[in-house]
Amino acid sequence: MKLNINGDVNRTFCQNLCLIFFPGAKFPENEPENSGLPEVYIDVHEENGIIVADAVIVSGGTRTAGHGSARICDYVSRDRAVKTSVGSAVLEAGGKLNGTLPPWGILTGVRPAKIAAEMRKRGLDREGIVPALMSEFMVREDKARLLADVNATEEKAVSLAERDTCSLYISIPFCPTRCAYCSFVSYATPAYLATLPDYLDVLCQDIERVCREIKESGERLLTVYIGGGTPTVLDGKQLDRLLSVVRKSIGDTRLLEFTVEAGRPDTVTAEKFDVMLSHGVDRTSINPQILDDGVLELIGRRHTVADFYRAYETARKSGIACINTDLIAGLPGSDAAMFADTVDRIIALAPENVTVHTYCVKRAAEFTEKAAVEGDRLGIYSYSGGDTSECVDYSQRALYAEGYLPYYLYRQKNAQGNLENVGFSKPGHEGLYNIFIMEELQNIRAVGAGAVTKLVGGEKEKIKRIFEPKYTYEYLKEHGKRE
To answer: Residue ranges of the Radical SAM core domain (predicted)?
Structure first.
């Protein structure tokens, strides 16, 4: 599509606004005239401390317009006022074009809960945050209340993440198979899996190094999170070695939370959970995504619904304190009734955490590549979200009704219906690491291929990110240079 901007506004922000109404759109620099593709025109300027914006969308022979304005004040910076006014204008024009407004208004970022946290600092309570989100960011009321609930639930965890604390993330970027919605092509190939033994050798050395750095810095380590990929692709001996190195490296540190993801039910064994418990692991995740064998086969999972139940029972019998289950709303091949049935069956198991993700279109995923060649037969691109909106709404109503509370929330580009991913927990079982990393409250030290260290710094300092090489062979090569 063509995007024409007159005025000082971030182009990426404007592109993200356009993607709300035109999922999957591209923004080539030299789009030819009369290409027939949608066009968006944005004009923004300042008048006596007020940022004024106008937007026009031309698509399929239809022309719609919108207007927005925002005043610069003590708690609204010029940048925020520009985004509010431009967002209002584009939303009005897009709403006229499509007949509906997006549930999250002009919020396009990954971490909308940070906006609620800023409002809390301004002195607003839960009931004040809701109308502020609705008026300042055009967020729909139910989403504003959800965000206010997340802010209230995470408050205790936020107080734990003082400036001298940190968490450790350890990456195991391997999977038994590749899911059709996943963009990480190499994680499950035989050649990639063959690097696992060497990878584990180098990873253990890096864990020892980073833990020494943590001790030397004087930081207090609060949580350890081993994710992936699928960490339980390691066999029992490999997992024992990894966890032994972690335990030895952190010494007598008393962790608030120690998570090992066991996402694929087909990688779960009683032996592995015995190993986890022996090293103090107290949280895990077993992810069915949806409880329907046909859809599981379609998306490339190697397990069945029965496999999930066996894996869940194994984890529960082990005595681990906290089990999370991940679900995905809007998976190709699924529908609202199927997802509601999945939610009900998961609630009946009473896991401590339930995380409901919205299906997201990822550029290099198999589903996305097929849609580009064969056409979008599975309906992976959707502005309205269709059944997905119904799925997400049902899951939230059902979880609230059973006493679960939302404790962290994030959003992704190209999510069905511009919807959200939400972690729910039983009170007192909130996933601390998830809150810490999502709200960017403390340093996250990260090791392993694809891992990203985040150094938070002071309140007004930009977060410094240190990226590890993405693939294991690159990581191994880089480690050879360090030596």
So the answer is: 160-411
What is the side-by-side order of every strand in the sheet holding 283-285?
405-411, 420-425, 353-358, 322-329, 283-285, 257-261, 220-228, 165-172, 443-447, 452-455, 464-467
DSSP state of 100: S
**Per residue in 363-373, pLDDT tens?**
555 555 555 44
Alpha-carbon span 302 to 175, nearest angstrom: 11
Our measurement of the distance from residue 97's CA atom to the centroid of its chain's CA atoms, rounded to an integer in Å, reads 29
Ordered domains of the chain (ranges, CATH): 1-101 (3.30.160.100), 157-474 (3.80.30.20)
Residue 389: which H helix or E strand, with range?
Answer: helix 387-401
Give per-residue pLDDT as tens, 303-356.
Answer: 999 999 999 999 999 999 999 999 999 998 999 999 999 999 999 999 999 999
Q: Do the Cβ atoms of 94 and 125 come closer than 8 Å?
A: no
Tokens of residue 441, six digits: 């409250």
Query: What backbone torsions phi and psi does residue 455 show, to the nearest 5 degrees?
Result: -105, 115
